[in-house]
Specification:
10 helices; alpha/beta; disordered N terminus; 8 strands
Length: about 290
């Protein structure tokens, strides 16, 4: 892939959503991007992406919130998790260390795709006291439930086989269009491709094991209010699948017009609006409490 032809918003990324490394205990580090001041919004990306994918949403949230997006363990410059086959609880424990280090006492937590599995496990478990509200965008349920394990094994073989056959650059070129809606812009295509091309093979393999070995619905119900949104053209985590997750969680569900799976890139104004609305509701709930 010729990076010079992708029209990536590199100046905006460095100026508006700069990266820094946060040192945790025992030599572990997490790469984050951060902007703004105010009540905290924490953003967790999906399996084929990274913290930079939230740029255009962050730009729209920065006036009223402190926005923090991580590169999940094994992504970017973030230290991988020790297990070869981690569970959502392993990612949640790393997130807990990060938020402790950043002195984040409470937050609105947003998870996209596989990040929604991590976010749900965190909000329903170790982070229950810290999460004011949970927003899930095109949540990936995972294949860890008994009735889904055969499908999960096929997905695992396919994804890891594609990694070996195509490499990261090849995967970025092949999968980009699948993540967007029916009429994606060239900028959206380029930005999805750029983010996917930055994947680390080891971190991606661990994330595949999470996807195929865990279950979003197996972590119990979060105590915080939850809402679910999905791109109307999402062919990865379909509206039907996301609606079923919302019903299981007792959460309201809505569609995002003009978006496929990568809605934070394709419709950032709409997604930021939904996040901002959730942030206001979470703060009202705190005030009323």
């Amino acid at each position: 892939m010729n990076m010079a032809q992708t029209h990536i918003p590199a100046p905006s990324l460095q100026q508006c959503f700069p990266e820094r490394l946060v040192q945790l205990a025992d030599g572990i580090q997490v790469a984050i991007r951060e902007c703004g001041k105010g009540p905290v919004v924490v953003l967790l990306h999906g399996i084929g992406s990274g913290s930079a994918s939230w740029l255009h949403c962050a730009q729209r949230l920065t006036a009223s919130s402190r926005v923090i997006a991580w590169d999940a363990p094994g992504y970017g410059l973030s230290t991988p998790l020790p297990p070869a086959q981690p569970k959502a609880g392993d990612y949640a424990a790393r997130l807990e260390l990060l938020l402790d280090t950043l002195d984040v006492d409470s937050c609105l937590l947003v998870g996209h795709s596989l990040g929604a599995l991590m976010a749900t496990a965190y909000a329903a478990g170790i982070g229950a006291a810290r999460v004011r509200r949970l927003v899930l965008l095109s949540p990936a349920r995972g294949y860890g439930a008994a009735e889904l394990r055969d499908t999960g094994e096929r997905v695992r073989r396919q994804r890891l086989g594609n990694l070996e056959r195509l490499g990261i650059d090849g995967m970025a070129s092949e999968r980009t269009t699948r993540l967007l809606g029916r009429n994606p812009s060239e900028d959206a295509l380029a930005w999805v491709r750029w983010n996917m091309a930055r994947l680390n093979p080891h971190g991606y393999r661990q994330a595949v094991e999470l996807l195929c070995g865990d279950d979003l619905l197996g972590h119990g119900l979060p105590t915080a209010p939850c809402e679910v949104h999905c791109g109307e053209d999402d062919g990865i985590t379909t509206p039907q699948a996301c609606g079923a997750i919302a019903r299981q969680l007792g959460a309201p569900f809505s569609l995002i017009s003009g978006a496929g799976h990568a809605s934070p890139i394709e419709q950032p104004e709409v997604v930021a609006g939904r996040i901002g609305h959730a942030q206001r509701h979470s703060l009202e709930g705190t005030a009323n409490g």
